[in-house]
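lol ok so funny story. i was supposed to be doing the assay writeup but got distracted and ended up predicting the structure for this chain instead. priorities right. anyway since i did it might as well share w the group, maybe its usefull for someone
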Amino acid sequence: VYRDVDALDNKFSTFEHAVDEALKKQNSLLSELSYEYGALNKEDNTVAVTLTAVPKTVTQDMQLSVLFDGQTSVFEKNGNEYVATLQAELFAKHDSFPVLTATSEGITKTEVLTSVDLSLLCNQYLPSLFCNLSGNETDADGNLNVVFGFSVSDAPASDIPFERFFATEERNGVKGEAY
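and the output, tada:
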């Protein structure tokens, strides 16, 4: 009986999620939205983020802008698309998303762009180095030997590679070689 209840609960959750997504899409001001990362500004650790939006309805006097982290960027019309670029801090944690404002024929509407997550952009932009403990053992003298593994993850949003990293070996308080 419990399995049947769990299966029904999962079906209801899946159905509820599908309905929520369909309503969000139906109520959106945009038929398409995409974004891509530009170059890193090393002086202030910001990344240019270019948003490309296609409104569902376009009028002659339509104006679009996006507000994020206190800065407003105005979209430029390019055919049926609108393009805007904003600067996002690489290491900032944001609790909010960019807000799109569309003004047309004297009516202003807004939409929170929840699909554009710019919080802790460093995790999406920079390559990552992971270290994991893969085993340990104690030798005959009672010394603990630990084996670490390293892996590097490329950041798909960036062409910034690791130049180098150092690992230092230390045994019983005595530093060994760096490699």
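The mean pLDDT is 81. The two ends are 58 Å apart (CA to CA).
back to the writeup now i swear
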